[in-house]
Amino acid sequence: MSPGAAGPATAPELVLPPLPDGIDWSIEIAEARSGRPLAVHRAQAQHRTASIGKVFLLIEACTRIADGRLDPDAPLDVPQEHAVGDSGLLRWLRAPITVGDACLLVAAVSDNLATNALIHLCGLEAVRAVAPRLGLAQTSLWDYIRSAREPGMPWTASFGTAAELGRTMRLLAAGLAVSREVSDMVLGYLAADVDTSLVAGGLNLDALDHVEADDGIVLRHKTGYISILRADVGLAQGPAAAVSYAVLAEWDEAGGDRRIAAEDGMRAIGRAIRAHIRPGP
């Protein structure tokens, strides 16, 4: 079975655990193949989505690799005007990297510097156009990653809804995010994601080695973090079923730091997904 294949059409709905208070949750969990909702909570609400929008950058970069406009083995220029810190490894590396290396760094460690270099290479407007071409109206990667957002800059790097992000993952699974070749390339990069601290934490996988099935579960996902938000979107396939999921948790910083509650809640959702796709011990 591919990562997008679903289990029996008669699979029961998935019961969400109690959601911690003080957090604005937006959730969609659905059958990966049919899109039949299994658990939904305010899935149409639009949120900041932090690094989740990098999925659309990967789609654009992989589209250009597939049609020959980009060579994955070509060296990648990292413009100084787009230098940024925080997540990633590129700022610590000594040797130049290739376009393909940058895609891997974006998927595996959400590398901000590699992200900005790829946006610069592809063009911001081209990256912004990816989500509308997929039929999404409230979801996009909208700007470079920035160390600070000054007046006049876009309000956030990326935004979206759980419903549209779940649909994005199902398009990838079905080979409909541009093409089967592009979709598989993006999913191949996402297989390297080492961040299993959120929803994926409840699946109990090896964080550093889950490209192949781990304990009967195959995972392809992307996470996002900012100070007031945690987000995780993905495809999870087990022996009994396969699901797409999108879980966004945002809070008002004036009400206090909710990140521990949000992360605990997301891992509880992951445990519910595990029980659904891989029943038993």
Automatic annotation (TrEMBL):
Sequence ranges assigned to domain Beta-lactamase class A catalytic in this UniProt record: 39-246
SUPFAM superfamilies referenced in this protein's UniProt entry, alphabetically: beta-lactamase/transpeptidase-like (SSF56601)
InterPro entries assigned to the protein according to its UniProt record, in alphabetical order: Beta-lactam/transpept-like, Beta-lactam_cat, Beta-lactam_class-A
Transmembrane parts of this sequence: none
UniProt record, GO biological process: beta-lactam antibiotic catabolic process; response to antibiotic
Keywords: Hydrolase
Entry's Gene Ontology molecular function annotations: beta-lactamase activity
Descriptive protein name: Serine hydrolase
Natural source organism: Brevibacterium rongguiense
